[in-house]
């Protein structure tokens, strides 16, 4: 399945194929930003597509990727089980907790959890879809 833009909870989301190319460079992240500009406001990226450096905060790769989406005012949802990475890094746990409080970058277990998060945007004061 290729990356496709679909309506999820009333929001256009670029749902990335779990078997698609790895996001291993800033350019890979920008390629997703470009694909989202065809009509999506959220990119749902499987955690399995992220280069392992993303989860090692000392590499700064996570910050570089996340900043690309923030700069272009796109939400990024990292979708999938990252529990092994969280168990290995208190800094990553803190980043995930802080990100999930924001409106820009979220870490969710699966697409139904993303749908719930998107539905909650309607009831969050000051949060634009």
Quick structural gist:
Helices cover 39% and strands 19% of the residues.
Lateral arrangement of strands in the main beta sheet: 1-2-3-4-5
Q: How many DSSP helices? A: 5
Element-level helix/strand string: EEHEHEHHEH
Helices and strands: which structural class?
Answer: alpha/beta
Radius of gyration: 14 Å
Unreliable residue runs: none
Mean pLDDT: 93
Question: What is the number of independent domains?
Answer: 1
Beta-strand percentage range: 15-25%
First and last CA, distance: 26 Å
Summarize the amount of helix as a percent range: 25-40%
Shape: globular
Q: Strand tally, please?
A: 5
Q: How is the biggest beta sheet arranged?
A: 5 strands, mixed
What does this structure look like?
By secondary structure, this protein is α/β, with parallel strands linked by helices. It has one domain. Helix content is 39%, strand content 19%. The protein has five helices and five strands. A five-stranded mixed β-sheet has the order 1-2-3-4-5, with helices on both faces. Helix 2 (61-71) links the parallel strand 3 (42-46) and strand 4. Helix 1 (26-36) runs parallel beside helix 2 (61-71). The longest helix is centred in the last third of the chain and has 12 residues, at 90-101. The chain starts with a strand and ends in a 9-residue tail after the last helix.
């Amino acid at each position: 399945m290729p990356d496709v833009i679909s309506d999820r909870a009333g929001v256009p989301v670029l749902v990335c194929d779990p078997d698609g190319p790895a996001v291993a460079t800033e350019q890979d992240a920008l390629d997703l930003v470009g694909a989202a500009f065809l009509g999506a406001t959220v990119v749902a990226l499987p955690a399995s597509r992220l280069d392992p450096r993303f989860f090692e905060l000392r590499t700064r790769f996570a910050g570089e990727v996340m900043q690309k989406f923030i700069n272009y005012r796109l939400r990024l949802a990292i979708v999938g089980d990252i529990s092994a990475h969280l168990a290995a890094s208190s800094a990553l746990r803190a980043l995930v907790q802080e990100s999930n409080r924001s409106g820009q970058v979220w870490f969710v277990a699966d697409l139904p959890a993303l749908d719930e998060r998107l539905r909650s945007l309607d009831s969050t004061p000051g949060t634009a879809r």
